[in-house]
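pinned: reference chain
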Amino acid sequence: MTGIRPTGDWDGSTFAHEGFTFRTDRELIDRVVPFVAEGLSRGEPVLVVAGDRVRTLLADELGADVSRLAAFTAAENWWRGGHDTLRAYDRDLRVLHASVPTWRLVAEPVWLGREDGRKWSRYESVANRCYAELPYYSLCLHDAERLPATVLEAVARTHPLAWAGDAPVATPAYQDPQQFIRSVQPAWGERPRNAAVLSVVNPREARHGVQAWLADAWEARADDAVLAIHELVINALRVSAAAELACWSEADRLVVEVADQGPGLPDETTGYVPPGKTQEGGRGMWLAWGLADDVAVAPGGTGARIRLYFSR
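pinned: its C-alpha cells
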C-alpha cells in the first residue's frame, strides 16, 4: 500500500466528504484501515459509526488500535428518521468542533438500505453546504452488494469526493445540493381541480382552514399538518400580505400547499439544515420538513410555493 494518500490534499481546515463504494471485504479494509491509521498518527480523533459486519472486520484488522478510537459505535442504533438523526449528528459535530481542531469520521449509513431511510441522501447532499466550514473528513461507506442501484447513484451525486485507489478525487457526477434536492423531490404538477383553496392573512385562519379540511381519514395526521402549515404561513406572511393554502389528497397522501407573493426562497435547502442556537431564520421550515413525510418546492415562478405530503 506504498504511495497511498488516505485523505489526499486535505489540510484539515474545511469539510471533506467522500462516498466510498465497496464490493469486497478487502476493498473495505484497504480503504478504511490506512485512513484510520493516518488519523491516529496525526493525533486526530477518529470516529467509526458502522454496521455490525463492518465493525467486526475493522476490529480484526485494527486490533489494539480500536481502543484508541474516539468512538466505535453501531450505526444501527443511530437511525431515528432523517430529521432526528441529523439533529443528533449536528449536535455531536458542534461539540467536537468546540473541543478539537480537526477530526475524521468513518460512517456507514446502513439505513440507506431501508425504504424509509433513502431520503437520507438529501441530508448527505445538504451537509456539503451547511458543514462546509467544519474541519473534518467524512468517509462514508456504501456496500454495493447490499444497496440498490438508485441509492448508489445518489451517493455519486451527493459526495464531492470518490476513491481512486491511491487518493480521493473529485466525483464527476456530483451535483449542487439545491439541484440534487429538486431532482429527487415529488414531481411538481398542476393542482387538481377539486383542491380546496383558501387565502389567509394570519396564522389563526390557516390553522382553522386546515382543521376544517381534514376529514376523519386524516385525523391521525391532523396535529402534524396543522403545526407544519402554521410555521410556513408565518414565514409567508413576513414577505407577503396574504398566503394561499390549497389542500387535496392523491395516491393515499394528503397534500397541503402554501404559496405567497414574496421574493421566493433564497435557499431551498434551508428546511434540511438544523438551525443553530443563534440563527434567526430557518426554524419554521426545519420544523415543517420534519413533520411532513415529504416536501416539494416549486421550480421558479413568482413567490414561494411549498407542498407538504402526509401519509396515513
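why pinned: The first helix runs from residue 25 to 41. DSSP finds nine helices and twelve strands in the chain.
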